[in-house]
Design goal:
- Helices cover about 40% and strands about 20% of the residues.
- By secondary structure, it is an alpha/beta fold.
- Strands 9-8-7-12-10-13-11 form a seven-stranded parallel sheet. It has a four-stranded mixed sheet with strand order 1-6-4-5.
- Helix 9 links the parallel strand 8 and strand 9.
C-alpha cells in the first residue's frame, strides 16, 4: 500500500517545475520528453518500449490515485519509472487538464524515422498534412489505431505529436503504432508511392466518391490517406500530389463532416476493403 503522506507537496519543487515545463513545445523538444495523463495513457506508456528503453521514466500520482490504480503503479515500477506520491495541488499544477485524474507520467519521445515506416511495407497509413488542432490530431491517431493502420505520418506543417491535448485525445494510441513526424508532404507522398502504396487525398470537394471507389473494388490494395486542415482542407498543391482526391458522400443534409469523423470513415473503408480482398494489417502477416 502506498504511504498516506505525499513526498511532493510544493508546486515549486524542482521536480515539479521540470515536469510543468514539458507543457511547452520548446522544452519538450530540448528534453525529448512529454507528458501523458490519466490511467489509460500511463498504463500504455508503462508497457511500451522503444530502442531497448522503457518509455515511461517518471510518474506523479496522488495517494488516492495510487490506491485506485494500483495496477498502473505496478506497471510503472516494472518499467523502472521513478514514482512520486504528490499532493493534489502538485498534480493540478503539472496537469494540463481542468479535472486531473491523479496520474501524470513523463515519457521519452517515441516517434520513428519515416524510412522505418516505409521499410515495414505498410498497407494502411494516415498522413496528417496541415492539421493544426491537437485534439483532432490525437483523435485521428486513435482512429488509425482502431482501424488497424500500420503507421501515422505527421507532416512538417502539422501540430506537434506530443502536444498534451493530442496525447490526451489519442487515449493511449500514441503507444500502439509507429508515428513519423516532421516529414514534408511531398516526401511523404513520394516515399509511400515508391513503396507501392496508393495515395488518396480526403477532401469534401474530391472528384471521386468513396462509395464508388468501394464498389469498383479499388480500395483493397495498400493505401495512404492524406487528411488536411480542419478549416480549409487540403491546399491544391497537396491535392495534386495524390493519385486521387476522394470525398465522403453526404447522403443527408449535413454541410460536411469534421476531420476526425471523415478520417474514421475513410480508414475503416480501406480496412474493410483490404480484409475483404484477402488483405491484412501488414504484409509481414501474410
Amino acid at each position: 500500500m502506498p504511504s498516506a503522506t505525499p513526498e511532493l507537496i510544493s508546486p515549486r519543487s524542482p521536480r515539479v517545475l521540470a515536469a510543468r515545463r514539458l507543457a511547452r513545445r520548446n522544452f519538450r523538444g530540448k528534453e525529448r520528453l512529454f507528458l501523458a495523463e490519466g490511467p489509460q495513457a500511463v498504463r500504455e506508456a508503462a508497457a511500451h518500449r522503444a530502442g531497448g528503453q522503457a518509455t515511461l521514466v517518471e510518474l506523479f500520482a496522488t495517494v488516492e490515485a495510487a490506491e485506485r490504480y494500483a495496477d498502473v503503479l505496478a506497471g510503472a515500477r516494472s518499467a523502472g519509472a521513478r514514482i512520486h506520491l504528490a499532493a493534489e495541488q502538485v498534480i493540478e499544477d503539472v496537469s494540463t487538464t481542468v479535472t486531473p485524474q491523479g496520474l501524470v507520467g513523463i515519457c521519452r519521445f517515441i516517434d520513428v524515422p519515416f524510412e522505418r515506416v516505409l521499410a515495414a511495407r505498410p498497407r494502411l497509413v494516415a498522413v496528417l498534412a496541415h492539421v493544426r488542432d491537437p485534439g483532432n490530431a490525437g483523435t485521428v491517431l486513435r482512429c488509425a489505431d482502431a482501424a488497424g493502420a500500420d503507421a501515422v505520418v505527421l507532416t512538417d506543417a502539422s501540430v506537434d505529436l506530443y502536444n498534451p491535448k493530442a496525447v490526451r485525445a489519442s487515449v493511449g494510441s500514441h503507444f500502439h503504432l509507429p508515428v513519423a513526424v516532421g516529414v514534408p508532404v511531398e516526401q511523404a507522398v513520394a516515399g509511400l508511392r515508391d513503396a507501392g502504396v496508393r495515395v488518396l487525398a480526403a477532401d469534401g470537394a474530391g472528384d471521386d466518391d468513396l462509395d464508388a471507389e468501394l464498389d469498383a473494388g479499388a480500395m483493397g490494395g495498400p493505401t495512404a490517406w492524406v487528411f488536411g486542415n480542419e478549416a480549409w482542407g487540403l491546399p491544391e498543391e497537396t491535392r495534386a500530389l495524390a493519385d486521387a482526391v476522394v470525398r465522403v458522400p453526404i447522403h443527408g443534409k449535413a454541410e460536411s463532416l469534421n476531420l476526425a469523423t471523415a478520417a474514421a470513415v475513410c480508414l475503416y473503408a480501406s480496412a474493410r476493403a483490404q480484409r475483404a480482398s484477402g488483405g491484412c494489417r501488414s504484409v509481414t502477416d501474410s
